[in-house]
Structures are given as structure tokens and as C-alpha cells.
Design goal:
Layout: H1 2-21, E1 33-42, E2 47-49, H2 51-54, E3 58-62, E4 67-72, E5 75-88, E6 95-101, E7 108-113, E8 117-122, E9 128-134
Antiparallel strand pairs: 1-2, 1-3, 1-9, 3-4, 4-5, 5-6, 6-7, 7-8, 8-9
Protein name: Lipocalin-like domain-containing protein
Keywords: Signal
Signal peptide: 1-19
Amino acid sequence: MKRYTTHAAWLFIASLVFIACSKNGSRQPELTGTWNWTLTNGGIAPMQSTPASTGIRKSLIINSDKTFKVYINDTLRLTGTYTTETGRCIHDHTNKQFYNFSNYMFACTIEKLTADSLIFAEEAYDGLGYYYTRVSGN
């Protein structure tokens, strides 16, 4: 009986370790996809602009091969590449992933990434925040 109890205890412990080390059902949302711009805010003289206030509809397409495209009012206006690097964020002094989009935005970090929303923040004390929503189906 003691042997059975010992085996059962080891099996129980192994099960707990397996469950704790296995991936859970939630995945980190993907950055790749098509994102529609909804808001830009911040700066030295705090400003806020939206598609409604500017008459501009912007779409950002981010590809897994580290290329991107920007459409403005349904016209392709910019293509480029982006790089990533880890650095210390000046906002909260933690290490974060920095994104550098060629000829598009200043170096920025992702402040929020969910299945349907994305917020980039420029790495500057007076930097801008760029808010996007994912286009459904991407």
C-alpha cells in the first residue's frame, strides 16, 4: 500500500509540473495584420487628432517579414521596413521592445497590444501616442 501511495504522489507531482509548464490557452496577440488609425495624441502642446477631425483615414499593414505599408485615404503612400531592438524605456524605466519604422514614426514602443487594439508610444517625453484598431479578419 505504501508503494502505491508513493507512486500516486509522484504521479500527482509530475502532473502538476506538466500543467504548470505547459502553455495555457491564451496566446500573445500578433502585431502583424492590418490596423486602422483611430487617434494620435500627446506632444509638447498636447494635441489630439482623429480621422473625424482630420478627414484622413490611415491604415498600417505590418507584415511578418518586417515590412510595412501605409495607406492614406485608400492610397498607398509609404512602404518600408522596420527593425526591433530591446532598450530601456524613458517612460517607466523598464526594458521594452523598440520598433523603428523607416521614414514613418520615431522609435516607439508598444504600450498596448490586444487582439483588436494597438497603441504605439514614441520614445520621447513629449512624444505622441498612436492608437489603432485591427481590421477584422486579420
